[in-house]
Amino acid sequence: MLAAALVASLAACAAQPVQPWQRGHLARWDMRWDPDATQAALAEHTHFSKEGSSGRVGAAGGGCGCN
Amino acid sequence: MIHPSASLSALLGAAASLLPAAHASAASTDDAINRASYRFSDYDEDALAPASVIGDGKRYRVLSQVFGLDTRIADGRFDLKLDATHEVMSGSSPWFVLPDAQQRPIQVLSGATIRDHRSALSAALTSDPGARSNTTWSAAYSAERDYHALSAGVERRQALGDALTLGYGGSFSHDVIEPTDAALDDRIARATKNSASAFASLAWVLDRDSVLQAGVQLNAEHGYLTDPYKLFSYADAIIPEHRPGERAEGAALLRYRRSFAQIDASLHVDYRYAQDSWGLHSHTLEVAWYQGFGSGWRVVPALRYYSQAAARFYSPFALVADGRVNYSSDYRLGTFGAFSTSVNLRKAIGRWELSIGAERYHSAHGLALDGGNAAVPALVDFTRAYAGFDFGFE
Q1: Interchain proximity A60–B257, CB inside 8 Å
Q2: Which residue of A19, B24, B169, B367 has the lowest C-beta tally within 10 Å?
Q3: How sure is the predictor about A67, in pLDDT bands with cuts at 50, 70 and 90?
């Protein structure tokens, strides 16, 4: 129910829908969530090994981090 | 210890293609359907100040290599991603903490230099990769001399109208640890850990220049969650540390992307809050600016701030035997904050894109937003430099 409410509220906020032909800027490489996914994974692996609750490590397998 | 469960970040990464027309306008390798990549990374920790250390103050260094392949198969009906990682680790690590005569902490580092290596393979298969709704199955295996992790996951991306994309999924991991010198150092000989993760997100096109993503993640770990290489100074004894056998964590994430295409730039802002059943909670804020300069040049400066409040059972040592059940002086469970700055320089040349970069990370107890007053003497500062390339092909 909470998710449905959130979806409804977000949809309602989209006052002017962005048409497919208006998405050129959104389609740029630098607008991806992780433009360099490999590098992002390396950085997250490092932070995860040194912090108590960093995000990730996806389904990509991790390691001990015992150091 | 790393819990290789599918995470919010993985989900959000998979949802990156919420825009089906995406990536069509960029040059060089940006729009390549098939791509091979290589990254080399040199991670080097600063030595601890000699005045507060017993043992070799030279700390950890990790040399990493990652080979990646991302390609369409079966006439384009599936996308296959393969990654192979190899790491070589060496150096000393924090072992336990002793009080000096004034009850100030003295960090003891492992006497012997550690040398180990880690190899990992991961694969992800996505059906209907060009569609706005698709499913990704993934599996991974990671092996060290003393640690093995096997994981699998599935995630679904579902378009909800033109502006919204729902993502959800889950994963499971089984880890086995077999510490070195178990009999010699009174360590557990073999132990296992199981981890499960579930996550969901919504990605929303705000306008023609910005997108927002919100997600939640739940993690559950069960089994041996203690670090077998850490000791704890308990009254007059030095004993192996001990952590709870279960851990539950909840996390929320917000990610925002804003394009400034007229100046060939974009802004990235990510925030994550996490809280777990050990009492540890954290805030992470990352801001990056992607700037193009023409002729294939790009530069990406970034700032990251992290703050965590300590786990309930963290303390550098116990002066008296108070009967506590769980205890650890692992600095990663203490209260601290950290700033890191990084920069990435990229140059596209035809189908190739070269990338070099560096990150400088500084952590300190005083940088934390809140948390306990217990000292955390082994906090780490490090420098990480990296280089690599991507190659796009038909």
Answers
A1: no
A2: A19
A3: low
Whether B127 has its CB under 8 Å from any CB of chain A: the answer is no
Which tokens is B355 given?
A: 């990338």
ipTM of the complex: 0.86
Which residue is closest to B308 within chain A, CA to CA? A52
Exposure of B156 by Cβ count < 10 A (0-12 exposed, 13-18 middle, 19+ buried)?
Answer: middle
Across the range A6-29, mean pLDDT stands at 74
Strand pairing partners for B61? Answer: B44, B90
B17: confidence class by pLDDT, cuts 50, 70, 90? very low
Give the three-class secondary structure for B324: coil
Q: What pTM was computed for the model?
A: 0.88
Q: Which amino acid is at B94?
A: P
B44-60: per-residue pLDDT in tens? 999 988 777 888 778 88
Q: What is the CA radius of gyration of chain A?
A: 18
Task: Tell whether A47 is within 8 A of chain B (Cβ).
Answer: yes
DSSP secondary structure letter of residue B318: B
**Partners of residue B22 in chain A, C-beta under 8 Å:** 23, 26-27, 31-32
Provide the token pair at B255. Answer: 């990610």
Selection from B162, B228, B166, B241 nearest residue B193 by Cα: B228
